[in-house]
Amino acid sequence: MGRKQTKSGKIRLTEVAKLAGVSPITASRFFRNPEALSLSKRERVDSAVKELGYVPNLAARALASHRTEVIGVVIPSLTNNVFADVLRGIYDSSEGSRYTIQLANTRYSILQEEKVLRLFRAQKPAGLIVTGINQTAESRTILESMNCPVTQIMEIGDSPVDMMVGFSHYDAAFAAISHILEQGRRRIGFLGARMDPRVQRRFEGYRDAMKAAALFDPALIVTTSVPTTVTLGGTLFADLLAQTPDIDAVFCVNDDLALGVLFECQRRQISVPRDLAIVGFNDLEFTASAVPALSSVRTNRYEMGRHAVTMVIDAIEGRRPQEPVIDLGFQLMVRESSMPSST
Amino acid sequence: MGRKQTKSGKIRLTEVAKLAGVSPITASRFFRNPEALSLSKRERVDSAVKELGYVPNLAARALASHRTEVIGVVIPSLTNNVFADVLRGIYDSSEGSRYTIQLANTRYSILQEEKVLRLFRAQKPAGLIVTGINQTAESRTILESMNCPVTQIMEIGDSPVDMMVGFSHYDAAFAAISHILEQGRRRIGFLGARMDPRVQRRFEGYRDAMKAAALFDPALIVTTSVPTTVTLGGTLFADLLAQTPDIDAVFCVNDDLALGVLFECQRRQISVPRDLAIVGFNDLEFTASAVPALSSVRTNRYEMGRHAVTMVIDAIEGRRPQEPVIDLGFQLMVRESSMPSST
DNA sequence: ACAATTATTGACAGCGCTACCATCGGATTG
DNA sequence: CAATCCGATGGTAGCGCTGTCAATAATTGT
């Protein structure tokens, strides 16, 4: 004999079907494809569901249909503010849809990324959102074999696995440096921490902009693989000053570093922007109220999250986008820290 | 006839069992309770699993066992840095375990909380982690009916649904105010934004500390229900100054507000700490490198996340903790912004 | 009016796993 | 040496749902 009888109180699809006077399969269709039902049956099933308080058993559904309603999201960090905004967009967009978000954190490790992708593959997600375009060959193979829509976020590039939404970190950094150059600054330092692929691209934008102006000088560059903190911004800036005392501007790969630089300037009585211009990246909220307000590059992170989910869901449901790659661009937010000094 | 034959490549538990020369049920036990197998069979199943690259079908497992291996996590915000740290702890601890984290965001709405709890109930999670102790009666009923371990995080209180890990926001704020009073400050302002229950408790700590010193004055208080930003800190501080110009200290319910106050002071040439002491809350990383460094109350958020997961998993697996309520405490981080002025 | 097409509906089997119980051999006991 | 117990293993019958295809009803075209 099998197991204990089903608890009498449990409501299954069969009960709903019975109450509605239809077959179980028709009741099932009510959830998956309501348009296929005649209006009368649809109403009967609907009220039966409500009357019984029926809740579908997702495990049974997944087992029978070989599908899940899970969208996997792979991000490199939970601490980085940047991803908080993206995630907010992702969760906001997924709410109200039938899909559930499953989050995985790689901590900036591509091996960890392979591992979580393998895990996701085993669970047959309905769709996937992954960060960046620098997957290992192995990861790419997994992604391509997944047989579900995939959106790469945060940046854009030439060979999407499937879809992409992001912006060009290279262009953004190039634009930031061009702006600083326009202010007449010539010795523009570069401060970078945790040089992940996107930060690397910002560096390339910096490098090329400086080279184009014939102002590139390795002595202007200080980077580290250590994760970003505000304090680190101060430290790196101190290193830069020791190495190259005649700098007149600093481009920081993110706003936390920029804030650290600002604090270090306050500590050393370096006047910003008179003695030093500062430009950050991401346009976190605090940049606007710092003293002086910090220039930064605004990136549309919340929208990125929203777009990513929308694209994936649309693709799952057969509405493939015309254009698989969306460039959300960036805006240079010029504030006091990189404007002509009023003094 | 039923459906298409199983894809020949698909590896099920049956295949593993066959290769290992055992019954499927024994192979199943290999995963759920390996100690129950004899050493020889255990090894045979183990190598069969590896040889075939078998991956369990979680949906089938959930359907057959009426259990999932999901731990639901309910938090009020994804943007708030505080939760980023907690989440990091949660994800770090869950990694390597068999459990999967399912995140839900309530955006500080108790109705949204009810909704996500109802959703979770339908999925029969193995355990649950929820933020705070101010659930609605309905939410509490759901939690109690869930029949799985529940840990409330972020604060502690008298009547846990099940388990708790957090600290007393009241005590923390009381201690912060006591410290400021010890510095000889008498007119201590209170700045609060998004007055969620925990922030409310911090207010009560402030209020009682001030009353105990016979220094409580409603004119010292400025609060708003708007979400916290650094900019808002400056705005609220401006309001406070307008309302009560003779303040000599400000307690901010979080570090973002405190940073905003600091910037506003820089803007108005108010010397910190000489003219004004500032104390924040949470001890975010930047407080230590601000100029002057900001005093704050350190809370052990990462550990909170780790503990919460550990407690839930232990309880799921029958190892109930002796003490269901863990107080992680707090540390007052006294820095320049609230020390005697050196000037 | 009748065949051909299209919308609705239902029957059946089975997705891959585990709960429940039965079994079986060997160790322990008196 | 029989009675008892225990640990290891297997057989059976589903868990609750949906894919496939067939059957029926409604609609259309000529």
What is the rounded Rg of chain A?
A: 26 Å
Kindly report the CATH topology of the largest domain in chain A.
Answer: Rossmann fold
Oligomer: homodimer
Structural class of the secondary structure composition of chain A? alpha/beta
**Order of H and E elements of chain A:** HHHHEHEHEHEEHEHEHEHEEHEE
**Overall structural domain count of chain A:** 3
Total strand segments of chain A: 12
Which segments of chain A are poorly predicted (pLDDT under 50) over 5 or more consecutive residues? Answer: 1-8
Largest interface: A-B, 41 and 42 residues
Shape of chain A: elongated
Biggest sheet details of chain A: 6 strands, parallel
Specify the CATH class of the largest domain in chain A: Alpha Beta
Mean pLDDT of chain A: 92
Beta-strand residue percentage of chain A: 15-25%
Helix amount of chain A, in percent?
40-55%
Task: For this entry, give a set of tags.
homodimer; 343 residues; alpha/beta; 434 Repressor (Amino-terminal Domain); Rossmann fold; 6-stranded parallel beta sheet; 4-stranded parallel beta sheet; 12 strands; DNA-binding
Task: Please tell me about this protein's structure.
2 copies of one chain form a homodimer. With about 350 residues, chain A is α/β, with parallel strands linked by helices. The first copy, chain A, folds into 3 domains: about 15-55, 434 Repressor (Amino-terminal Domain) (Orthogonal Bundle); about 70-165 and about 300-330, Rossmann fold (3-Layer(aba) Sandwich), CATH 3.40.50.2300; about 170-300 and about 330-340, 3-Layer(aba) Sandwich (Rossmann fold). Chain A contains 12 helices and 12 strands. Chain A has helices at about 15-20, 25-30, 40-50, 60-65, 80-95, 110-125, 135-145, 170-180, 195-210, 230-245, 255-270, 300-315, and strands at about 70-75, 100-105, 125-130, 150-155, 165, 190, 220-225, 250, 275-280, 295-300, 325, 330-335. In chain A, the strands form 3 sheets. A 6-stranded parallel beta sheet of chain A has the order 2-1-3-4-5-11, sandwiched between helices. In chain A, helix 5 (about 80-95) links the parallel strand 1 and strand 2. In chain A, helix 6 runs parallel beside helix 7 (about 135-145). The radius of gyration of chain A is 26 Å and the shape is elongated. The termini of chain A are far apart. The model of chain A is unreliable at about 1-10 (pLDDT under 50). Chain B binds a DNA duplex (30 and 30 nucleotides) through helix 2 and helix 4.
